């Protein structure tokens, strides 16, 4: 096969041999991780090895367990669940003798760098191995098992860790590889159960994994608006938890909810360290409330199936970064662990992260519960507080004093995107818990101007919206200037809105800009206004992430996995999949990485004839060397070329391939908008919406103080020139930020193309290409 040529670094005298192993419990995403390590190592001129069966393979050694891998060995791995190189728990590696055997086997194979993907136990073992390495080498030399030359050559071991674990229990990273896939399995199961629960008005107790970490229980609780959750981080009072749970469940039932969902993490405890079990919760619901209650233990289903888009991409980027970290490491560099913060891949100290993680389990054991939540990252705490506010709060006893209660409106603008209903649910439930009055504007700006479609929202109105797809409020693409901006102002004035949340894509972005621009004419718009970007194209300036883009990606990868299966059943057949995205190639690029496609054509690069010719040669070569498991997919954003539709492109490629292969086109169309929103879109919608309400509260508190001293009717104290009160809520550089719409629109936006001037995901292009072995023609 013709492999891409890279280099192993200017200082390397010999080919670096880098091994990868997976260890501990298996997690979806381990295969894309290994694939990325293997292909990046080859791309950089190194020789990758896989150590099969985790540390067991290292201790046993030999060609059965330690194998050099080639480019095509990892073909098609992205769509496969579990870990193809095996994993195990290995007692021998916990003993020095086991690690000594492991050191000998690495040296014999010529390996001096080890990348470990596993949980905190596996990474503790890896760190210990590195710390002991010099003494292990000495012992092997002294016992005559290795030569002096080998001892010199292999005097340093480079270690790099990545966290593969469905529990998301590692400190210092927002997410571990596999966690969002397991969450996806849980949410799918609860969504199914919900339907039967509703029919019979039943209660369900769902037990999920998480011995020391309640992340899965917490996040699935948010995603499914569970009535109650039990997690190890928040030990409940043994005397009161049953009463507390029954109170919430009863209130929800009184308000019209026909179902009850309680999610219990397997490690849930009370403050005496007595487990809170599913059976206990079941008995309480039956005995005290007389509910027809069932227990569903999800068990290993949570580890099952292939990874969701987020995990495939996270694992791939972390695999690439692991190899980079190995090649940049010096003997004095502390072992790194690859982490993610918001959407940025980072390196942190492996020792420190493992130490912080272990301190959580220790704090639980020591009953220092107030420390436990603090030790989790700040995002976990934020999610937990949000869960309590929107699902466990007593909405009839609002938090805020009357004078601070606001009227807040929400509107959907643009095409539907996964998570926009979750945003409305969270906004409503959070507003009610605070004492604010939530208003919905139905059917976008035209609904408001033509039909005065404004209603207050109640908790019952939005029941079930957390997990529903489409737009329950109704949406359209009209912007204020295309309807009647004066009428919009009139209704804002009439309902005395104190704040506005727009959930939408580029039309939402333009809407906010237009409302902000006319504040001097219409005082009604001098209120805090926040745009929560929501569009599958992920093209809204001011953020690196839009609601709905994750749901769309998942729909697209499911579609592509099916197409790929069909393609591999037919000899030498490739498919061009036409993707949405307007002038943004984000969806096509991320799908390219997630499914291991051969290439993607995006509007940012266009399609040149030279590149097309090169791609035809590349695909022909790929069909020559692989048995057809990978390389049959090509993604094309519809707008990547004016001249070539997907069908025309398929025809040209088929003709030019001269019988070596044929290409068909495939159109997923509106499938990309997704059905139910993905867990990522649901939980982010909740987080962003609550942040938006808090932003409005904060800006209004300042102005309310001013209002108290003024008596004029309709006085709106927000300064009309204060642009910091009309903002885009976005994720940027690993932080959630509020950016004034005026500057984002005027300085950061290519208005004609409807995309940001600086494309944050550009670096993904070269990663997508190098992992496909695609040769690029540089113009
Ligand atoms: P999971 O989160 O899925 O449980 P994990 O990596 O924490 O994954 P463990 O069973 O704790 O799972 O560890 C996996 C393997 O790592 C162990 O079987 C052992 O081989 C090695 N290991 C764990 N702890 C140590 C240690 N303290 N010293 C040496 N090796 C260890």
Per-chain topology:
Layout (H helix, E strand, L loop, with lengths): L16 E6 L7 H14 L3 E5 L2 H7 L5 E3 L27 H14 L3 E6 L1 H23 L5 H6 L4 E6 L15 H22 L2 E6 L6 H9 L4 E3 L10 H14 L5 E6 L12 H12 L3 E5 L11 H20 L7 E6 L2 E6 H16 L3 H7 L2 H15 L14 E7 L6 H15 L2 E5 L2 H8 L2 E3 L28 H11 L3 E6 L1 H12 L11 E5 L15 H21 L3 E7 L6 H10 L3 E3 L7 H17 L7 E5 L8 H11 L5 E5 L12 H30 L17 E7 L2 E6 H8 E2 L4 E2 L5 H11 L7
Parallel strand pairs: 1-2, 1-4, 4-5, 5-10, 6-8, 6-9, 7-8, 12-13, 12-15, 15-16, 16-21, 17-19, 17-20, 18-19
Antiparallel strand pairs: 2-3, 10-11, 13-14, 21-22, 23-24
Helix pairs in contact: 1-10, 2-3, 3-4, 4-11, 6-7, 7-13, 7-22, 10-19, 11-12, 13-14, 14-22, 18-19, 19-24
Adenosine-5'-triphosphate binds next to helix 4.
Calculate Rg over CA atoms.
28 Å
Determine the number of helices (DSSP H or I, runs of at least 4 residues).
Answer: 24
Overall geometry: globular
Bound chemical compounds: adenosine-5'-triphosphate
Range of strand content: 15-25%
N- to C-terminal separation? Answer: 25 Å
Count every beta strand, where a strand is a DSSP E run of 2 or more residues.
24
- Largest β-sheet summary: 7 strands, mixed
Low-confidence stretches: 1-12, 704-715
- Helical percent range? 40-55%
Give the strand line-up of the largest sheet: 3-2-1-4-5-10-11
Subunit structure: Heterooctamer of 4 alpha and 4 beta chains.
Binding site for ATP: 25, 89-90, 119-122
GO molecular function: 6-phosphofructokinase activity; AMP binding; ATP binding; fructose-6-phosphate binding; identical protein binding; metal ion binding; monosaccharide binding
Region (C-terminal regulatory PFK domain 2): 407-779
